[in-house]
Amino acid sequence: MNTIKPLEKLNVFSFKGVQMRTFHITWMTFFVCFFGWFGLAPLMPTIKETLHLSKSQIGNIIIASVSGTIIARLLIGRLCDTWGPRKTYTALLLLGAIPVMGVGLANSYETFLLFRLAISIIGASFVITQFHTSIMFSPAIKGTANAVAGGWGNLGGGITNMVMPLIFSAIVGFGYVKADAWRYAMIFPGILMLIMAFMYYRYTKDTPSGNYDEIERTAEQKSKTDYSVLKDWRIWALSLAYAVCFGMEITFDNVAALHFVQEYGLSQSTAGICAGAFGFMNIFARALGGIFADKVGKTYGMRGKGLLLASVLLLEGLGLIMFANAGNLTLALLSMIGFALFLKMANGATYAITPFVNAKNVGLVSGIVGAGGNVGGMLFGFLFKSENITYMQAFAYIGLIVIAISVIIFITRFSEPKKALELNLA
Fold this sequence. Notes:
transport, nitrate assimilation, transmembrane
């Protein structure tokens, strides 16, 4: 079989070639996964009323919504190295669609919590997205490609906050009561996931040269996952960074609509639009982080990328503190846009470094760093669960934590790799 090299440039307007076709299907699939993963979040004001949920129970639901992803991301990284991203993504979509469409059967806090936990495995889709994109593009453009794919996929978190309340309202308009409308609304993201499972399996390839089975890569790769890489402190530093940027992103996706309803008295639809503005920043902000990281890397190497990541984390933390102290809705929205910009840039900058830490174990490293994001989201959930801490105070505490992590990233030495970081595709 002819060996096809990873692309040297990213032309987002092109669909030609296996690399660009896979790139576009990958980010669109990740986009759809957010509808399944966070489709319930903007409907929580109604669900809270329907199931008579307390603040503590909502906190547990927030924690559950990201907890299953932690283990799933670690497993998914290994599966990408062995099964290949094509089969792994297809299986995840098919499996994840079941609880997404089945959550409407929940009639109590306990059953809803279990469904929310099952749905959380969908978050592992991010690892496959970044792994697959890393294979399709050369090191010089890898950070940008990862950031664009991840950012456009994460955009689903914002669009979900805007669209799901509209679907809910449309179902109510057909004569269904609100207590049933949120249940039927979740069928929509489940169907989208099934469609993307077919698209992914049919129209993508594991590598530019073909699927693992076709190029006999699977057997070769089974012996290549080296768990000694876990001794590398840089992996854990990046996990901490991702815990406070992506971890904060999924936390905010979970609580934003409910926060705007409770704090500023907005309707569910209006709160969804405000929360959606946060996610909508992904259309360019995460890509911006990857682009800047690639440019900085060309001049200042990996150390420069690390300093960029530390800087945007610091600004994210300051923005969160400003959001926590906003006295009115206007200031809250302005500060939200501010910290959203730097948070999403930090996401992109983190994964502009991650593929270069250990080129032979990209799946494993991506899985660990990705899992760090969900650990952060889970731990932040405990702040929003507490009866003694307001949502505003929780945002302020998280801001201080982000600033502390930025200092850790600043002092971490992200050295240059010893060899050219081309993935072994043959």
